[in-house]
Design brief:
The complex is a heterodimer of chains A (452) and B (254).
Chain A (H helix, E strand, L loop, with lengths): L5 H20 L2 H4 L2 H11 L15 H4 L4 E2 L5 H9 L10 E6 L10 E3 L5 E4 H7 L1 H7 L10 H9 L4 E5 L9 E7 L5 E11 L4 E10 L5 E11 L4 E9 L4 E11 L4 E10 L2 E10 L5 E10 L4 E10 L5 E10 L4 E10 L6 E11 L5 E10 L4 E10 L3 H8 L5 H17 L5 H16 L14
Parallel strand pairs in A: 1-7, 2-6, 5-7, 6-8, 7-9, 8-10, 9-11, 10-12, 11-13, 12-14, 13-15, 14-16, 15-17, 16-18, 17-19, 18-20
Antiparallel strand pairs in A: 3-4, 4-5
Chain B lengths: L1 E10 L2 E11 L4 E5 L6 H9 L5 E9 L2 E2 L5 H6 L2 E4 L6 E5 H15 L7 H15 L9 E2 L5 H15 L3 E5 L7 H14 L5 E6 L12 E6 L2 E6 L2 H9 L1 H13 L1
Parallel strand pairs in B: 3-10, 3-11, 6-9, 9-10
Antiparallel strand pairs in B: 1-2, 1-4, 4-5, 7-8, 11-12
Classes of the chains: A alpha/beta (452), B alpha/beta (254).
Chain lengths: 452, 254
C-alpha cells in the first residue's frame, strides 16, 4: 500500500504471517472483526508525533524493534504464572492472572463467583456466552485516530472477561495481575471485556508487572459497559521496568445514572501511554477520571483522556498529577467534548505537576470542545516545584530537608490515591508511592526482577 | 539561653535589621512590639533559620552554640520553635504523620527511641487537652481548610507536642477572636516552665493581658529603640507608636 511507513508495514506483515494461527485459537465472533480492523490499522498506521494525540510521545523507540510475538501460551508458561504471588497481600480480592496477555490455565478458564459473577478468559467466554459477546464486544473500542486500537482488534485473542449480572453487588474486588515474562524481547496484545448490567456494583484492579529483564511492548484494549445505575471502579497499578512499554486503551461506556472511577497509578515503567475514553451515554452519568504518575531517569508517561458528554446533566471530573525526576518526561492531554444536547453538563479537569529537576519536562494540553450552552466547565494545569514555604514549615518542626521533600511529594500524590475506595488498596498504594518517592523500587516484594 | 549581638540582616540588598541586641534568660517571656514593617517577622524568621535573608553582621548564640551555623531543622531539634504568623496549608500530609515525624526526629536527635504508636497517640491526646484544641483537627491534613483561629491554635498544639526550650511566637494573636486568644495565651502559660523561654511578637497589647511578659522591647525601623518592663506595653497601648517615633526624632534633634 502506498504511503504506509516501513514501521507500519512491519506490523502488517506480522498480521499477515500470523493471522491464520491467531484465528485458529480464537472464537469466530472475535475473528469476524479482524479483517476490517486490519484495514483500518493499515490506513492509520502506527501513530507518529504528527498525530495530534501522540504529539508528545515517540512510540518509535519501542515499536521499531524486533520482538518475538506471543500468540500461543505453552503449558510451561502456566507454571510461571502459578509461581507469582502478588504483594498486595492485605487485599481480599478474587485474583486472576494473565500471562503475556493470556489466561494461563488449561481447565477452569471461566469461573463463577458466589454471587453469579463470571470471571475468566475472554476467548472462552466468547464460546460460552455468545449473546453477551455479540452485544458488547467491539462496540465501544472505536477510534478514528489511533491505529493501535485497530491493531489490537485485528490480532488480540484473549484477555480478561468479567460479567456482573443485573443488581449484583460484588463486595470484594477482582484483581487482575498482568504478567509479562519471556526470555526474549516480546510484543503482546490482550483484550479485556467487562460488562456490568443494570444496578450492578463492581471494582477491578489491574496490576501490570514485568517479570524478566527483557524489552517488552504491550498494546492492550479494555472495553467496559456500565449499565444503568451501575457503579464501576477501575484501578490500574503500573509497575514495570525501564525496558518495558505499555500502551493501554480503555473505553468505558456508561448508561444513565451510572457512576465510574478510573484511576491510573503509574509507579514505574519505561514508556507508558494510557488512553482512557469515557462515553457518558445517558442522563446523570458521573465519572471521575484520575491518574498519578511518578517518573525518573528516562521514563516517559503519557495520559490521554477523552470525556464525551453525549447526554444532558452528566458530571465528569479529571484529576491527573505527576512528579517527574531526573530527565523524565510526561504528557497529559485531556479532552472534554460536550455535545449540543448535553445541557447541564459539569466537566472539570485538573493537571498538576512537580518537576524535581531542570531536565524533567511536562507537556500538558487541555482540549475543551463545548457545543451546548448550559454548561459548567473548568480546567487548570500547573507545572512547578515544591512549595518553598511548605518546605520551611516542615523543617522548622525539625523534619530534615529530604524527609520534608518526601512528605510534600507524598501529600501531593495522596490527593489522587484518596479516590481509591478500597481501604486496603489505598493503604497499599500509599506505601508503594512512599517507597517509590524514597527511591526504593516500589516493585512488589515477590517480584524477581531487579530493574532499578 | 539566647544572646543576640548587633544583628544586621538584609533582604535583596535592603537592610531590614540594623543592629539588634537581645538577651533572653531561661524562664523569661520577652515581648517584642512595634509597628508594621519594623522587622519583627524578619527577626523571627532569621532565628528559625529561614534562608531568605542575609545576615551581614552580628552573632546569635543559643545555648552556647552559634545559631546562625545551624539548619532550620537542627535548630528545631535543639529546641527552637517558631509559631508562624501565617501557618502553611499542606494538603495530603496528615497532622498525625507530620507530628509523629517531627517528634521522632527530635527524639532521635536526643538519642531516644521513637515513640510507639500507642504512646504517640496518648501524647497527642494529652497535648490536645492541654491546649484545648478540637480533636478533629488532628485527624485532618496540616492546616488544610482550617479557619484562621484553628491555624493559630494548631501552632500552639505543635508547640506543646515539641516542648521547645525557646518558642518564638510571630503575631500568633493576629486575627484571633477573644476566645481563641485566650486559648492561645493559656497554652503558653501552661507550657511555661523555669527552664524555657518565650519571645512573643505582637502588634497589639491585648495578648499581653493574658501573657505577662518579663521584658517588653519596641522594635522600630530595624532597631530595638526601647526596652522596659511590662508597663511599657500599656504605655504603648495608650499612646500609640507615634509616641515612640516622636521621642526618637526628639532624641536625634537634641
Amino acid at each position: 500500500m502506498n504511503g504506509v511507513s516501513e514501521l507500519t508495514e512491519k506490523y502488517q506483515n506480522l498480521y499477515r504471517d500470523n493471522i491464520e494461527r491467531i484465528s485458529s485459537i480464537s472464537s469466530p465472533y472475535i475473528n469476524s472483526f479482524r479483517g476490517e480492523a486490519f484495514e483500518r490499522f493499515s490506513s492509520m498506521g502506527i501513530p507518529t508525533r504528527k498525530n495530534e494525540a501522540y504529539k508528545y510521545t515517540n512510540l518509535n523507540i519501542f515499536f521499531d524493534h524486533d520482538y518475538n510475538s506471543y500468540f500461543m501460551p505453552q503449558a510451561s508458561d502456566f507454571l510461571k504464572a502459578e509461581e507469582f504471588r502478588c504483594d498486595v497481600t492485605d487485599l481480599d480480592a478474587h485474583g486472576l492472572v494473565l500471562l503475556n496477555g493470556f489466561y494461563p490455565t488449561i481447565t477452569d478458564k471461566l469461573r463463577q463467583l458466589p454471587s453469579g459473577v463470571w470471571v475468566g478468559s475472554l476467548n472462552e467466554a466468547a464460546i460460552k456466552f455468545p449473546e453477551l459477546i455479540e452485544k458488547h464486544y467491539g462496540k465501544y473500542a472505536k477510534s478514528d485516530t489511533d491505529g493501535l486500537v485497530h491493531l489490537n482488534t485485528a490480532m488480540a485473542s484473549d484477555g480478561v472477561f468479567v460479567y456482573v449480572p443485573g443488581g449484583v453487588k460484588l463486595s470484594k474486588p477482582v484483581q487482575v495481575v498482568n504478567l509479562v515474562q519471556s526470555d526474549e524481547d516480546m510484543f503482546n496484545q490482550h483484550r479485556n471485556l467487562i460488562i456490568l448490567e443494570k444496578d450492578a456494583e463492581f471494582s477491578i484492579i489491574i496490576c501490570d508487572h514485568t517479570l524478566s529483564p527483557k524489552k517488552f511492548l504491550t498494546n492492550a484494549v479494555t472495553e467496559v459497559f456500565v449499565g444503568e445505575n451501575a457503579h464501576f471502579d477501575l484501578i490500574r497499578v503500573q509497575n514495570e521496568h525501564n525496558a518495558a512499554c505499555k500502551v493501554t486503551h480503555t473505553f468505558i461506556h456508561q448508561e444513565k445514572n451510572s457512576v465510574t472511577l478510573s484511576n491510573n497509578m503509574t509507579l514505574h515503567g519505561g514508556l507508558i501511554r494510557n488512553s482512557t475514553y469515557h462515553y457518558l451515554g445517558g442522563e446523570h452519568a458521573e465519572t471521575i477520571s484520575c491518574g498519578l504518575y511518578l517518573a525518573d531517569k528516562w521514563q516517559h508517561v503519557d495520559n490521554f483522556v477523552n470525556v464525551d458528554h453525549a447526554f444532558p446533566n452528566c458530571t465528569s471530573n479529571q484529576l491527573f498529577k505527576g512528579v517527574l525526576d531526573d530527565m523524565s518526561t510526561g504528557a497529559f492531554n485531556g479532552r472534554i467534548l460536550v455535545r449540543p444536547d448535553a445541557q447541564g453538563t459539569l466537566a472539570y479537569q485538573k493537571n498538576n505537576n512537580i518537576l524535581l529537576t531542570d531536565d524533567a519536562k511536562m507537556d500538558t494540553k487541555p482540549q475543551l470542545e463545548i457545543f451546548a450552552d448550559d454548561v459548567k466547565c473548568s480546567h487548570g494545569a500547573t507545572v512547578g516545584q515544591l512549595d518553598e514555604n511548605a518546605l520551611f514549615y516542615l523543617r522548622s518542626r525539625g523534619i530534615n530537608k529530604r524527609e520534608a521533600r518526601l512528605m510534600l511529594m507524598f501529600g501531593f500524590a495522596h490527593e489522587v490515591i484518596q479516590n481509591i475506595k478500597i481501604e486496603a488498596l489505598r493503604e497499599r498504594m500509599d506505601n508503594l508511592v512512599m517507597q517509590r518517592l524514597r527511591g526504593e523500587l516500589s516493585r512488589c516484594a515477590s517480584c524477581v526482577v531487579k530493574c532499578g | 539561653m539566647l544572646d543576640i549581638k548587633n544583628l544586621k540582616v538584609s533582604i535583596g540588598g535592603k537592610t531590614i535589621l540594623k543592629g539588634i541586641s537581645l538577651h533572653v534568660k531561661p524562664g523569661e517571656i520577652h515581648a517584642i512590639m512595634g509597628p508594621n514593617g519594623s522587622g519583627k517577622s524578619t527577626l523571627a524568621s532569621v532565628l528559625a533559620g529561614r534562608e531568605f535573608a542575609e545576615v551581614t553582621e552580628g552573632t546569635v548564640t543559643y545555648m552556647g552554640k552559634n545559631l546562625l551555623d545551624m539548619s532550620a531543622e537542627d535548630r528545631a531539634k535543639e529546641g527552637i520553635f517558631l509559631g508562624f504568623q501565617y501557618p502553611i496549608e499542606i494538603p495530603g500530609v496528615s497532622m498525625v504523620n507530620f507530628m509523629k515525624t517531627a517528634v521522632n526526629e527530635k527524639r532521635k536527635h536526643n538519642g531516644l527511641d521513637p515513640l510507639s504508636a500507642s504512646d504517640f497517640l496518648k501524647l497527642m491526646r494529652d497535648k490536645k487537652e492541654l491546649v484545648e484544641i478540637d480533636s478533629k483537627l488532628a485527624n485532618r491534613s496540616v492546616n488544610e481548610g482550617f479557619s484562621g483561629g484553628e491555624k493559630k491554635k494548631n501552632e500552639i498544639f505543635q508547640m506543646a507536642m515539641l516542648e521547645p526550650k525557646l518558642a518564638i511566637l510571630d503575631e500568633t494573636d493576629s486575627g484571633l477572636d477573644i476566645d481563641a486568644l485566650r486559648i492561645v495565651a493559656n497554652g503558653v502559660n501552661k507550657l511555661k516552665r523555669p527552664d524555657n523561654s518565650f519571645i512573643v511578637i505582637t502588634h497589639y497589647q491585648r495578648l499581653l493581658d493574658y501573657i505577662v511578659p518579663d521584658v517588653v522591647h519596641v522594635l522600630y525601623d530595624g532597631r530595638i529603640v526601647k526596652t522596659a518592663g511590662k508597663e511599657l506595653a500599656l504605655e504603648l497601648e495608650a499612646k500609640g507608636y507615634d509616641w515612640i517615633k516622636k521621642e526618637l526624632e526628639n532624641n536625634v534633634v537634641s
